[in-house]
DNA sequence: GCAAGGTC
């Protein structure tokens, strides 16, 4: 029997594993599962008092991400300033997964939607993404519920079902606000500084000079430490080390004043002590001390241990943890919480480990003697602390995974172990009026340090002293020391600083650290210390002198604070975004205005393009400069792509302004053959080596066989053979008329001023245009008579043939009397007649088609070829 | 080619 749609309930979780847990719990394990974009679990049960058919599925994190619409994706055509007011669009984060379609399909026929997203702001935001995909908001008859749960346990799941609430739109909007602010601020600054500095310096070894409200303050921490180290001035200090010999052991006494920075004063005290020569035991105290077991393990603490003790970087550690999680060895590894939920099954988890060869006997004793309840940590309401789920051995896991798993187990067992207890004995001495002491430690209960031995309290034995006892001083050393600078920030230190300052989240902290490494702002050195590079240092110095806010952690707190107002419903989402963006826009404008100050720092650190000499033009793939190798065969080499691009031989090559090829983004070059009659032509290094249009090869091979154009080895298509319909350097744009000598086209030599001329793109026919003109350019018009391209001439004021000193003139070089009289043929015989006769009677586009005739015999239709672009 | 945040 078909169930009424109102009795169908769709439930959506944030990830597949949670959907599985919820379905298993609610169905008591009696469900059917089918595949989809994500698995769908189905079962029957009761919902709000009626019989219902349940479908439980999930998304995989955010369904959508924000970005700029297509026109704004073009770096060259967009002023980053405009990005602040640009519209933004949402697109599926992972289009291939088709999550939106999946939700829409599964929602069909359902009258109730229950949202089981994680209970944080991001989860609340995903709720509304899910609602959007399901179309539930469009129909008032369909009900939407939010399930609030803090752990995936039966108790919490049933509790959430019994207390369904509404999704919180304010919290979701706060996330929308953050997304828009982060996108606009990050992208605007990143594009501006990348474009500005990469155009100026050849040896910047970063593909993109990024800016972000999380990554930049993260870099700031590393550079701040670098500054501390660099400006550190060591200071000498002195201390007194008196020794006694007691029961045959030599013992050094610690001075109560520790150390002093004035040697004369220390020498004075040394005299007092030495003159006395006898010490008296003034006090003996004994105290029971406790070193507490750890609270539950959260992500940042796992990452800190992984980096400092296991030598695994945060990014790698998270990948390893992720794998351990998906394989079922540990619980979900992304959590802020260090408190276990009250319902946590400690006994069960200990039971899992009781058979493990590594900790089995310890765990069995713990179970037999009774384990301790874990210390109360913080409950962030997200996921439980990271704990083992299965027992494993080193062989099954492999080296790194094993070490991380081992730590998770040790930590977990540690949280249930007794505290470590030890006796601390302090003996105080007096010599010449100065106080000294000795401290001994004796462990009475190892507790958790038995399973986490690196945290053990060291044993320090002291002899038995008696109060009032007098002992002879054997010697008094004057110790000289020096203060030392701090070390570079370790990854572990950095993670602590980020956490303390609210930079990033458990999941994104490793990403930010990885970013500043990948962008070559810092390098990880021995001991996982983060050492800033010259680029990283120069950037932070630059922000500091223009607008220090840009690299301070407050920039993140500011954004967080503003969007919290939205989350609490105290401020309107649109207004907050506008307000924050306006402030950042002002900061951006000021930064742009002051960029010269940062540039001064770059000048001192990097070599300008002009000086380096070797870098010629930018690669269209990686946008970094390619090296020009002038030795035979001449070529460009892209260091990042590891690609070579051959160039024409026997001529000079220069950057052609800073123009780029519209097909592949490579910067154009201009090649000039030697001698007064040597022609010049633009070329794109990429197209030249890999002609993009079908059939072009027949043209340039025709050009080569004539022996007149020296294209060189591996050479191909200069712009004068390119049929691109709109590029201003192509044959279409620069071609004027058919060649009178061959099947080629006469094209304008773009850099032949003031001896303006046309040359044939196949043979060596040369035609001189009006000499001394300021400018000659082709237009988009064709001559109605002969179909040649109309050219525009800007004559020199002094030599203009025009009446009244006018300089501007346009016309056809064949049919216009004035222009034709100023045109002169070189290497050709009967320019006028041949041109006139050949040109006449041709249809539009004849210049182009004309080339197709003759030796090659093959027609090339650029419109056909353009399909692929 | 850009951010930061989810998750795989």
TrEMBL record:
Pfam families: Topoisom_bac, Toprim, Zn_ribbon_TOP3B. Keywords: DNA-binding, Isomerase, Topoisomerase. Residues 838-869 are annotated as: Disordered. Signal peptide: none annotated. Residues 8-151 form the Toprim domain. Residues 168-588 form the Topo IA-type catalytic domain. InterPro entries: Topo_IA, Topo_IA_2, Topo_IA_AS, Topo_IA_cen, Topo_IA_cen_sub1, Topo_IA_cen_sub2, Topo_IA_cen_sub3, Topo_IA_core_domain. The keyword Isomerase applies. It catalyses: ATP-independent breakage of single-stranded DNA, followed by passage and rejoining. CDD domains: TOP1Ac, TOPRIM_TopoIA_TopoIII. It comes from the Eukaryota. GO terms for molecular function: DNA binding; DNA topoisomerase type I (single strand cut, ATP-independent) activity. Residues 844-855 have a biased composition (Gly residues). Residues 858-869 have a biased composition (Basic and acidic residues). Introduces a single-strand break via transesterification at a target site in duplex DNA. Releases the supercoiling and torsional tension of DNA introduced during the DNA replication and transcription by transiently cleaving and rejoining one strand of the DNA duplex. The scissile phosphodiester is attacked by the catalytic tyrosine of the enzyme, resulting in the formation of a DNA-(5'-phosphotyrosyl)-enzyme intermediate and the expulsion of a 3'-OH DNA strand. PANTHER family: DNA TOPOISOMERASE 3-BETA-1, PROKARYOTIC DNA TOPOISOMERASE. This is DNA topoisomerase. The gene is LOC107422201.
